[in-house]
Design a protein that fits this description.
single chain; about 140 residues; mainly alpha
Length: about 140
């Protein structure tokens, strides 16, 4: 990162220094860019603990697709068939990962556990307590 930053500064100063926007539209675009960049990072930091790394990773692959579609929509850029195939592959991969069957935790839906799961839980506690009492009892 240090090398990339140093090279960026060298190119900037070799080109005559920074060039700020000269019209209101340029300043507005810069402000919107900063706002959207900040919102994206806030969402990422907020959702990462909730979804976990595995849940967030596929969603992050949508960024190039969004950039491509925005360039088509806002800048009237033509999309090649290979780009459209890439969009389809990325979207189908993200959907496949999002819709895959995941093991469910008991009571994850918020509903009360049924009799069988309560009985299994009671057996697990009984086994754990038996194990603890067996281990903690003195040996003669």
């Amino acid at each position: 990162m240090t090398v990339a930053g140093t090279l960026a500064l060298a190119v900037t100063f070799a080109g005559g220094g920074r060039h700020w926007p000269q019209v209101v539209a340029g300043w507005l675009a810069l402000a919107v860019l900063c706002l959207m960049y900040g919102v994206a990072f806030i969402l990422l930091v907020t959702l990462l603990p909730r979804w976990g790394v595995v849940g967030n990773s596929p969603v992050l692959n949508i960024e190039p697709v969004a950039a491509l579609l925005l360039a088509w929509w806002l800048l009237d850029q033509r999309l090649s068939p290979m780009q459209l195939i890439g969009v389809a592959v990325v979207i189908s991969g993200v959907l496949a990962l999002a819709l895959r069957a995941r093991p469910r935790k008991p009571g994850a839906t918020g509903a009360l556990p049924d009799e069988d799961s309560q009985a299994a839980l009671a057996r697990a506690h009984a086994i754990q307590n038996t194990h603890v009492s067996f281990v903690s009892s003195p040996v003669n």
